[in-house]
Amino acid sequence: MEPIYIFTLTGAFAMGAALSARQVSHDVLTHNQHALDVADNSEANIETKVEVPVIYLAAGNLAVILLITSLVYGGQNFAWWIPVSFLVVSFPAIYYIFLRRMLKPRLGSLVYSLFALMGLVPMVQGWMA
Q1: pLDDT at 115 (0 to 100)
Q2: 25 vs 38, 71, 126, CA distance in Å?
Q3: What one-character-per-residue DSSP string does 19-55 give?
Q4: pTM for this one?
Q5: How many Cα atoms within 13 Å fall on the side-chain side of residue 86?
Q6: Confidence at 43, pLDDT banded by 50, 70, 90
Q7: With contact defined as beta carbons under 8 Å apart, do 111 and 103 qualify?
Q8: Contacts of 125 (CB under 8 A, 6+ apart)
């Protein structure tokens, strides 16, 4: 498989997983802030704090590591400006135009992390060859 395809798909899925995990964390933060505002208005001491499930935090952190790995792979195979432009323009555009519409953030962070992990296999094979 061509290095540009490996780089593009792995990086796009890794960026998608990281941004989906960020959205899950943001949703929990918004829910907690809303519950805190409601508790302040009603002067009740009800603890309705929700925490981010560990699986989504792990998927987001793994996705960031895979994104960095993809950028290193791109930096070794292409001119320096290609990975930088993909990081700033192409990967976020792919996420916001396509990936975000396919899956909700909770499921997306897990599925996209899995796809990025699958993209790591040909990347490592390319490094070993």
Answers
A1: 97
A2: 20, 24, 34
A3: HHHHHHHHHHHHHHHHHHHHHHHHT----------HH
A4: 0.89
A5: 26
A6: low
A7: yes
A8: none
d(CA 16, CA 109) in angstroms, rounded, equals 7
Cβ–Cβ under 8 Å, residues 87 and 72? no
Q: Is the pLDDT of residue 108 over 90?
A: yes
Confidence class of residue 123 from pLDDT cuts 50, 70 and 90? very high
In 1-129 the beta strands, taken as DSSP E runs, fall at: none
For 41, 46, 47, 98, the CA distances from 66, given in Å and listed in that order, are 44, 40, 36, 20
Tokens read off for 92: 């976020």
Residue in 48, 46, 87 with CA at minimum distance from that of residue 66? 87
Helix (H, G, I), strand (E, B) or coil at 65: helix
CB 18 within 8 Å of CB 95 = no
Q: Which residues contact 59 (CB under 8 A, 6 or more apart)?
A: 17, 21, 109, 110, 113
Q: Residue 70 above 80 pLDDT?
A: yes
CA distances from 7 to 2, 88, 98, 126 (A): 9, 14, 17, 11
Greatest C-alpha distance within the chain: 65
